[in-house]
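Notebook B, p. 112. Complex prediction, attempt 2.
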Amino acid sequence: MTSSSSPVDASGKVLTSNPHLIKWVAEMAALTKPDRIVWCDGSADEKKKLTEEAVELKILEPLNQDKLPGCYLHRSNPNDVARVENLTFICTPTKDEAGPTNNWMDPKEAYAKVGKLFDGSMKGRTMYVVPYIMGPAGSKLSKVGVELTDSIYVVLNQRIMTRMGRVALDMLGDTGPHSNDFNRGLHSTLDCNPERRFICHFPQDNTIWSVGSGYGGNVLLGKKCLALRIGSYLGKTEGWLAEHMLILGVESPEGEMTYVAAAFPSACGKTNFAMMIPPKRFKGWKIWTVGDDIAWMHVGDDGRLYAVNPENGYFGVAPGTSYESNPNAMKTIMKDTIFTNVARTPDGDVWWEGKDGPVPPEVIDWKGNPWTSKSPEKAAHPNSRFTAPAKNNPWLSKFADDPDGVPISAIIFGGRRATTVPLVMQAFNWLNGVFFGATLGSETTAAATGKVGVVRRDPFAMLPFCGYNMGEYFQHWLKMQSKITHPPKIFLVNWFRKKDGKFLWPGFGENMRVLKWIVDRARLRVGGQETVFGWVPKAGDLDLSGLNIPHEQVDDATNIDLDEWQTEVESYGEFFKSLGAEMPRALELHRELLLARIEAVKGGHG
Ligand code: GTP
Ligand code: SPV
Ligand code: MN
């Protein structure tokens, strides 16, 4: 079982002699007491073996291999279908460091409390050692993590989502100044009981302990835990930005490339925007995906902001994904994909609400029960997902693996807002842009447990993912301005405005029309109309040709109602106050100035 000698792969070749890693694995094994330890090398053989084992253990169900080669279905415990924000903790030495938006636990207390749960948690199980890289292999911007897990599902998902196995051990190396520089992740599904579920982050120790869940962002520790919560903390300390943002490249018919990063909260359209196909009107325009969920952004030597996607795959929302809404995603998930909590058709295909074609009369639902089209329940869980390799994406950017990342010309913030927020608006300057991010609001979705459809403030789409004090995070953004001598322009969008319960804007591919204006603004090629809140497109500048919707509908989608905005901006006050002493004064002053300007425009004395 545990030994201090170097682990070897199936052929007897030494995988690593890194003493820090070997020692830590032995310590964690002494705590969790697995029957076996398996070091993952990331090989095709290993994948085959683990997949077969998962099928035997009914963790995975093979789908129709003619239609969906290499694809499998996983049904999670129905009590374990989304991130659990109430059970997610930032364990910093003081509560202030975690700030008022995070759950906090004292590190000593957390190690003791969660340590008790880990004690013997892997008895009778295998501990998989999963070394992985977040970011391109060999890039200065990348980080190595090692996840110890008792879940084959986690191993197989990590294999898709990250650069996993030998490549990570090689990057970490055995000796040298950085050989102890890896994130230590420990995960056990335990008995999958919400009473014994904790997702704990120790930023100062570069450590994550996750117990009692087997789902998504709770357990794929490279993603939200490392790349965002620990990542944002590292970003503050080291002078860069770890963000909940997609990254895409817009190519004009002349071949001009413009890169854009966009932060939308969970289940608010990042994957769709990152894979968008422009409508007919935009013949010759191409959208290339760099990433669909997370961006790590550093200032380059030329003073521009460069973004890498730390991930290597997509953990995307299934419901609503169709050849009509997102053909690229449909092509991406045709092979080598793990589906979680979708429905299964009688011929071994997958199905979810909003997929193309007629609703099948009978399927097996996400819980494994027979379902008919007359059933009032949903067949697929609203947060059902696909895990697919990035390389399956026909429009994957050739720079997705670039160790230096891509230069960002525009940053977009957007939320799910039925009212108030117009289709698109550009910030006057960096402070104004940070204000857009800081005040971002969105209706809650099924991506996290809890009530769905209530507007909450979700600053920078990072509310559940910021690993330190939110006020300090705003300060960090403000401070970054002095380093970025050629800053991207900042925008706010809203695809989700409604009238009479219906979306006003068609969205999806048609969002290209908004993106085109954003690119032209970023390149200083088009004018703008000044409003109190930012620049909006001048009449006629938003290309609407070939768009088959009434003009009044576009007017409603782009409208700015001063009364609504007054209520909106007033409501930020309470939120800003709740962030406490670290809240930058510049943002509160900007808020007050906005209120005064609204008053003035309305004819008051502001
Ligand atoms: P996470 O993976 O949770 O971070 O989500 P995401 O931001 O990548 O969201 P995704 O692109 O998966 O979209 C979530 C839901 O929003 C899906 O059901 C989409 O069909 C829907 N959606 C995406 N873009 C649009 C849009 O432009 N308009 C409308 N009305 N719905 C959209
Ligand atoms: C999100 O909720 O923003 C996701 C899914 O991308 S998860 O990996 O579960 O966090
Ligand atoms: Mn996300």
